[in-house]
Structures are given as structure tokens and as C-alpha cells.
Specification:
single chain, about 375 residues, alpha/beta, Aminopeptidase, Alpha-Beta Plaits, seven-stranded mixed β-sheet, four-stranded antiparallel β-sheet, binds zinc ion, N-acetyldiaminopimelate deacetylase activity
């Protein structure tokens, strides 16, 4: 079985601290990429020749024939000024690993090292994906477009979870993290004198009606077993007290845990915008910006995830879903996969300037993903 020795944990911890001191934003992870390539080379793990902006893809070829599966870590940081008291604070002003991607990176590197050491046991191959630009929801898409998932039969990943203790792994089939989409709507009318409204077509009235009526899409048009949040977060129109403006612009976001719900909502919102505008003699333009799908875990892997955690002495717990998004969802559009929470017992939530985590979790995560890869390849025979 796979064991992260004290020496390896020390080494991975030092590497995590190094990355923490040198954070880089999405698609700017040039130094992180160089470091990862040199660390992989030191261990004799081959890198695949994908033409990526930043990020690295390596592959461990098992001594036995079999399918290829993937483990994914994200490597980018955030534009946040660090406020922790750790000795390895960010050396880059206004940039911080405040989402713990430094932890993901070294944990998956650790899993790769363990798998490489025991590759004679592997019944297939494990592709190791160090993905850039998760925080801007561009990295996974970029890698998929470059063919990184070609030949991959299943993909696994994690996010650290500050509210779970070290040694626990949060597991949930189906929707784990919400889709994140954006929209804007422009209601067009005819501007005019506020005292002579019958000569104008008032877009403020259209927009006002829409803001309240749009909530009925969730309560009246969607399946009882689906759920969603529709939030209108910006409304702009008019610039004085005695003039009816000619347009009003709304913006907002929709979150849901079911792709089926995500598919129907924009059509219903568009229809309601157009018919509301039409009812007042105006028109509406609806624009939907599909940003990030649902992190949707394939239930077929739940059992092997839970038994792997327990087999190596850790605890699988039921995961609470999160309304935050994760671009791991893009891989799951093409390849079945499973995303878990890794307990890190941190003091603060993701993206907080005082975000921190317990580094012992590196051992748990590296051992878990190595064992999971071995077990999945064994089962896929
Ligand atoms: Zn984040
Ligand atoms: Zn993150």
C-alpha cells in the first residue's frame, strides 16, 4: 500500500511553502510550471508534449496494459493580499494562494511520486494534470481543447475543505458544486416626458415587473426535484427625475446543481423577458453567458471512493454541496469523474486573506489519490 514517508511529507511540505511564497495568477503560472517540470524530472516522471500556455501534464505508464485515468490538480492563485501570519507568506504583493491550490498541486505531485515508485503494480496509466487558470474558469477548457483528455476513461480531483478535519474525505454523488452562469437583459422602450407617459414606452415598468416575475420560473416552471437560484444583481436605467428613459439594463447570475435545470432556465428567462416587454409595447434583448457547468459526480465511483478512503485508514463522510463553482466541471462534460472534499481543518473559508490549512493533509491526499488510481485501474480491467 502507498505510504507518504516522513521524508516525502517534509519534501512536499517544503514545495508547498515554496509555491505559497511564489503565487501566480491564471495563465501566468510560468514559474510554477517550470518548477513542476523540474520536480517531475527529478523523480523520473515523464511529461507529455502538450502545447499549453501554462500547466503540465505528466503520465505514469503502468507495467501492465490497461486503460488511462487522470488525476487533476489546479495550480493558480488569486489577486488577494495575504494576511496570514505564516513564515512562508506570499512574496508577491496582492497575490495569494488563498484557495489552497498550492496544497492541491503538491498533494497530486505526491500521489504521482507514489504511483511512479510502484508502477509495476499499475494495470494501466495515470495521467497527472496540473491545470492552470481554475479561478478564471478557463484552464480546464484550454486543456480539453488541447486534447489532454484524449484516451482518458475517468478523471478524479479534489478541493480542500477548511471545515472538515484532516483525515476525512467528503463524498457525494451527482451535483457537488453549482453551475455558475451570467446573464444580461436590455429592455427597450421609447423615452419621453415623465408627465406624458402615453407618448413614451416605459422600460422601467417592464424591468420592475420582470425582477419579481422572474422568480416564478423557479417556483412555477421548474421540476419540483430541481433547484436553482436566480439573482438579479444590477439594474440601470434613467438619469433624472422627469424623463422616462429609453432602456433599462439588468444583470445577474443563475446557480443550480442539475444540468437539466440549467438547460431550461435560459429559454424560460428569455421568453419571459420578451413577453413582458411586448406586453408594454417594447422589446427585450436577452444574453446568456454560459460560464461554468455543474460539478457532477458519477455515482458509479462512489463506492470505490469510500472503500479506498477506509482501506487506507481515513474516513469518508457525506459531503455538503457548495454553491461555489469549480472548472473541474468541464472535464466531467467529456469524461466520467468524481470530485471530493479533502479535509484540511483551516481557520477560514476559501478566498479569505487569512486562508490557511493543516499541512498533514498533504499525506492524506497523496495516499488517497494514489490508492484510488490503483483501485480504479484494477476495477476497470
Ligand atoms: Zn478559488
Ligand atoms: Zn479553488
Amino acid at each position: 500500500m502507498f505510504q507518504v514517508s516522513d521524508e516525502l511529507l517534509q519534501e512536499l511540505t517544503e514545495k508547498r511553502r515554496y509555491l505559497h511564497e511564489h503565487p501566480e495568477l491564471g495563465f501566468e503560472e510560468v514559474h510554477t510550471t517550470e518548477m513542476l517540470k523540474s520536480w517531475l524530472a527529478e523523480k523520473g516522471i515523464p511529461v507529455l508534449p502538450f502545447a499549453l500556455k501554462t500547466g503540465v501534464v505528466a503520465e505514469i505508464k503502468g507495467n501492465q496494459e490497461g486503460p488511462t485515468i487522470a488525476l487533476r490538480a489546479d495550480i493558480d492563485a488569486l489577486p488577494i493580499k495575504e494576511e496570514t501570519e505564516v513564515s512562508f507568506q506570499s512574496k508577491k504583493e496582492g497575490c495569494m494562494h488563498a484557495c489552497g491550490h498550492d496544497f492541491h498541486t503538491v498533494s497530486i505531485l505526491g500521489a504521482a511520486i507514489l504511483l511512479h515508485e510502484q508502477k509495476e503494480q499499475l494495470k494501466g496509466n495515470v495521467r497527472i494534470i496540473f491545470q492552470p487558470a481554475e479561478e478564471i474558469a478557463q484552464g480546464a477548457k484550454h486543456l480539453v481543447e488541447n486534447g489532454v483528455l484524449e484516451g482518458v476513461q475517468a478523471i478524479f480531483g479534489m478541493h480542500n475543505k477548511p471545515d472538515l478535519p484532516v483525515g476525512t474525505i467528503g463524498v457525494k454523488s451527482e451535483g457537488l458544486m453549482a453551475s455558475v452562469d451570467k446573464f444580461d437583459i436590455t429592455f427597450h422602450g421609447v423615452g419621453g416626458h415623465a408627465g406624458i407617459p402615453h407618448n413614451a414606452i416605459d422600460p422601467i415598468v417592464m424591468a420592475s415587473q420582470y425582477v419579481t416575475a422572474v422568480q416564478s420560473i423557479v417556483s412555477r416552471r421548474m421540476d419540483l426535484f430541481h433547484n436553482a437560484v436566480v439573482s438579479i444583481t444590477s439594474i440601470h436605467g434613467g438619469n433624472t427625475w422627469n424623463v422616462i428613459p429609453d432602456k433599462v439594463v439588468l444583470q445577474g447570475t443563475v446557480r443550480t446543481f442539475q444540468e437539466e435545470a440549467r438547460e431550461v432556465i435560459p429559454g424560460l428567462m428569455k421568453q419571459m423577458a420578451e413577453s413582458t416587454a411586448q406586453g408594454y409595447g417594447g422589446t427585450a434583448q436577452f444574453h446568456w453567458d454560459a460560464y461554468m457547468p455543474v460539478v457532477y459526480n458519477d455515482a458509479a465511483f462512489e463506492k470505490i471512493i469510500r472503500t479506498t478512503a477506509e482501506e487506507i485508514g481515513y474516513m469518508a463522510v457525506d459531503a455538503e454541496p457548495s454553491a461555489a463553482g469549480e472548472d473541474f466541471a468541464f472535464y466531467q462534460k467529456f469524461t466520467p469523474g468524481f470530485f471530493v472534499w479533502m479535509g484540511v481543518d483551516g481557520p477560514r473559508e476559501w478566498h479569505h486573506p487569512k486562508f490557511d490549512l493543516k499541512e498533514e493533509a498533504i499525506k492524506v491526499a497523496a495516499e488517497f489519490f494514489a490508492a484510488l488510481a490503483l483501485n480504479v485501474l484494477e476495477q476497470q480491467q
